[in-house]
Design the sequence.
């Protein structure tokens, strides 16, 4: 495998780590605002966390983090998609 594919895979992995960290950040905000029941719901159904985050980002002041989280998700999905097309997986 060429070296640039390893670099692309490494960047996708770093984006995945950032994605995880930002999801954890929003999960902590959710837990502090709504309690344990909705936190468990968000852990079981991740799309709830995204919707809750966008609905409450302005109220709790983390709009920038939500934008960064969505950007990391889209960039990671795009890189993994291109990687799979190039490798033929």
Sequence:
């Amino acid at each position: 495998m060429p070296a640039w594919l390893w670099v692309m895979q490494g960047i996708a992995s770093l984006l995945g780590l950032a994605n995880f960290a930002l999801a954890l950040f929003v999960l902590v905000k959710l837990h502090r605002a709504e309690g344990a029941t909705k936190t468990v719901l968000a852990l079981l159904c991740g799309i709830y966390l995204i919707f809750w985050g966008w609905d409450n980002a302005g109220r709790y002041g983390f709009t920038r983090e939500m934008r960064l989280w969505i950007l990391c998700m889209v960039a990671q999905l795009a890189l993994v998609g291109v990687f799979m097309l190039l490798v033929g997986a």
Notes: The mean pLDDT is 94. Residues 3-34 form the longest helix (32 residues). The two ends are 13 Å apart (CA to CA).
